[in-house]
Design goal:
By secondary structure, this protein is α/β, with parallel strands linked by helices. The chain has seven helices and five strands, in the order ααβαβαβαβαβα. It has helices at 2-29, 45-53, 59-67, 79-84, 98-110, 126-136, 148-154, and strands at residues 55-56, 71-75, 91-92, 114-118, 142-145. A five-stranded parallel beta sheet has the order 1-5-4-2-3, sandwiched between helices. α6 (126-136) links the parallel β4 and β5. The longest helix is centred in the first third of the chain and has 28 residues, at 2-29. The chain is elongated.
């Protein structure tokens, strides 16, 4: 009986390890796989402030602002996701590179263009996190597109591939 439980335990651990390996491989080959190399942190006080101080923009308003060339759309997804499809004209600024590009963003804001921060979907808190950091540096003309690229695609809007960032 003891040998039976031991073999069941070993088989269970082996199945779990194989499942984890398959899941990691599937995530790596997906175009919209999760970036597993960065830390996900809960909302801090600054992020909470961004939620209250930064306005949201809906899809229809965003389309009008883009057409009027009044905004800079900032896509903060990782480079791989950005290159596979993003809002036309958007700039890519993955959060791990944000400090080196803040000056360029502030110049865009000072030139009278609103910065619209876009993430992957409504569950993504990274847009508010970046907005909080920009607010600390006195970038006042900010908006968040909470629907993210998911809402853009769901509306049948065109995507641009390739491209770059700051």
């Amino acid at each position: 009986m003891k040998r039976f439980f031991r073999s069941v335990l070993v088989e269970s651990i082996l199945i779990a390890a194989i499942s984890l390996g398959v899941a990691m491989a599937a995530n790596a080959v997906r175009r919209d796989g999760l970036p597993l190399a960065r830390s996900y942190q809960p909302r801090d006080e600054l992020t909470e402030q961004a939620f209250t101080r930064v306005s949201r923009v809906d899809l229809e308003t965003l389309k009008a602002l883009i057409q009027a060339e009044m905004v800079v759309v900032l896509d903060i997804r990782d480079k791989k996701s950005f290159r596979s499809g993003h809002i036309p004209g958007a700039k890519n600024l993955p959060l791990d590179r944000e400090e080196s590009a803040i000056v360029s963003l502030l110049e865009e804001s000072e030139a009278g263009r609103t910065i619209v921060i876009c993430c992957s979907d409504p569950a993504c808190l990274d847009a508010a996190s970046l907005a909080a950091r920009l607010l600390q540096r006195e970038a006042y003309d900010l908006m968040i597109f909470p629907g993210g690229i998911k809402a853009w695609k769901a509306d049948g809007m065109p995507l641009e591939t390739g491209g770059g960032g700051f």
